[in-house]
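SAMPLE LOG
Freezer: B-3
Tube label: C17
Construct: single chain, 286 aa
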Amino acid sequence: MELEIESFTHVVSAAWLAEHLNHPRVAIADCRFSLTDPDLGRRQYQQGHIPGAHYFDLNHDLSSPVGQHGGRHPLPEPNQLAAKLAAAGIASESEPEPTWVIAYDDARFAYAARFWWLLRHLGHARVAVLDGGFSQWQAARYPVTDALPVSQSGHFIPRIQRTDVLDIIAVRSRQGQPGIVLVDSREGDRYRGEREPIDPIAGHILGAVNYPWQSVTNAQGYIRPIADQQQHWAELTSASEIVVYCGSGVTACVNLLSLELAGLSQTKLYAGSWSDWCSYADLATE
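STRUCTURE (predicted):
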């Protein structure tokens, strides 16, 4: 079966994945997770997943251990993630036959987009998220299994894109600079400091504007049309740089996906996000 690479975008439908389910150059990543019950995603995966999918845990695979600073979900160590990707049969773009990877979750791309961004950060652009997630896959009556895939022998060499991520020092240096927009991806009440269920301090980074990540999809978890994505970011088209953050650098990736779909590629992730920022008490109260 030929893989229609030219039609492959950042988001694919369940019908596309079903058609290419057994293609040797397509790999699948199950990224289901719950912040309130960290083991839920793995239990759901063990109970049933898309055939051939390998599970990637937000805490253990897509993040590194938490420290005093750096946020609640620091970026994973590249070589460790690369080893996990290789074991899932994923060949990097330096290989003769690189793998196309489809990531899914059941949370409107909250965790699948983190995987999507991480692979691009490691230099692997052949990655997309599954529109509608696992629920819509099931609703369409596509196959589900509880059989665990065997470990494979892919070859993944990370080529880190260091210019797409910022630390707190770089974010501070950009505050107030003309043409640079800082986007807070959290819900409006968390941005305004009216509610903070996770981090010790409520509020937002001075100067940030609020674009909640849930606006990227509809209530069923389907991506909104490209025209809607473009309209959503219309006021930022003249920005020279768009720095995106959330609570811990996870759901910010949904906005980064949306910005890419809208044709705005001058983006960077503040990986530590608000959980890193407010770990410095003097900054959090600015």
